């Protein structure tokens, strides 16, 4: 007859032997004990990137490159949106989905376009599900909302594992592998900008964008939070984000807020710009104006 | 006698100073308008295969104010642009050029100088890259678009499009309820 103490001792011994042998034999994948990005050494980062590129290339049957381009010096990104020019066509939403490898089923969209009635800025009354034959509809204006890249981000403060942080160029990024999926940041975000993978994301191989960034548009997994990163894989190379390029009316403007000659600085100097929910003091870097 | 000449001197110099002051202020805005554009424009010359307008119009009589005949001939043009008439923009003597409000000839490649005569706010914004679309890179070469590359100058109307589908409430991952 086996006593309780003996049983516990034997099972503890068995479990530790099993773990040790799996570690030695390599049954546990190498990435299981990976460091968060900010703590990785150069060698570990290189090994991680190689592993990732191999995994993604195999999964999507195409050559995938994972970049880790750092922030440029003296750059602080800002976006300005002219609400008089936005017609609510949702081309930005679709361009973002394609560029950033968002799940198609269940469908994730980092940009929400709210249809608002003229005369009210009450975001609770905005309609995300509008459907018309042609836009803009009579008496309405359209308010696209995505991650506002706040200067004092509440989502960063509440993360219990520091999986999300503000980069030097102002973009709030997520280390997807370090995220535990608690969704505290979803609750903290005042703009509903963060999206969660409730189930396994599905991304058809032929629609996958193979140019990805570690902190940006690389394919995510179930249980990971994702959001707009100002197309970090494009903007750090000098290109415009996909939403800015897709907008047919030129309502979106993007640039470096530290460059006095940039278009965004000129708009901030001349136009009557505002931010959403200014009373929360999060200081978004996403500015709106009617002009 | 002395008092009178001193008064004239003061009066003259005072006016000169005030004049120079205002000239200095307005010189700043003159300088502004000749700043180079922060973006490039694609070279656009009249398509050489297209029929040069003067080939017909140098022989046709100019009937100012008679738009009906012009629109009957030019059936591809549908016209609705405020209270404008054809010859308000097209030069009456040289149909291969346009004419500003100040009776200055501009080519079709610089038509924004003419459009800006009425649409001054948009022109001022366009010159800074605020109005309209910019292509290229945010920290490098950028391309702007001319007026007629986005707008139908004869019948400008706000852009309407069929919107992309909304997020499906059942299949979307993030639901607010």
Summary keywords:
heterodimer, A: 291 residues, alpha/beta, Alpha-Beta Plaits, 2 domains, three-stranded mixed β-sheet, two-stranded parallel sheet, 8 helices, 11 strands, 26% helix, B: 177 residues, mainly alpha, two-stranded antiparallel ribbon, 6% strand, extended
SSE layout and pairing:
The complex is a heterodimer of chains A (291) and B (177).
Chain A: H1 4-25, H2 42-60, E1 65-67, E2 77-82, H3 91-99, E3 112-117, E4 140-145, H4 154-158, E5 164-166, E6 172-174, H5 184-188, E7 195-196, E8 211-213, E9 225-226, H6 232-235, H7 242-246, E10 252-256, H8 263-270, E11 286-289
Parallel strand pairs in A: 1-8, 2-11
Antiparallel strand pairs in A: 2-10, 3-4, 5-6, 7-9
Chain B: H1 2-33, E1 40-41, H2 54-57, H3 67-73, H4 86-89, E2 98-99, E3 105-106, H5 112-115, H6 120-128, E4 135-136, E5 142-144, H7 147-150
Parallel strand pairs in B: 1-5
Antiparallel strand pairs in B: 2-3, 4-5
Can you walk through the features of this model?
By secondary structure, chain A is α/β, with parallel strands linked by helices. Chain A folds into two domains: 1-33; 77-289, Alpha-Beta Plaits, CATH 3.30.70. Chain A is 26% helix and 15% strand. Chain A has helices at 4-25, 42-60, 91-99, 154-158, 184-188, 232-235, 242-246, 263-270, and strands spanning 65-67, 77-82, 112-117, 140-145, 164-166, 172-174, 195-196, 211-213, 225-226, 252-256, 286-289. Chain A is elongated and about 80 Å long. Chain B is mainly α and 177 residues long. Chain B has seven helices and five strands. Chain B has helices at 2-33, 54-57, 67-73, 86-89, 112-115, 120-128, 147-150, and strands at 40-41, 98-99, 105-106, 135-136, 142-144. In chain B, the strands form two sheets. A three-stranded mixed β-sheet of chain B has the order 1-5-4, with no helix packed on it. A two-stranded antiparallel ribbon of chain B has the order 2-3. In chain B, strand 2 (98-99) and strand 3 form a beta hairpin. Mean pLDDT of chain B is 81; it is low at 28-33. The interface between A and B is large, with 54 and 33 residues.
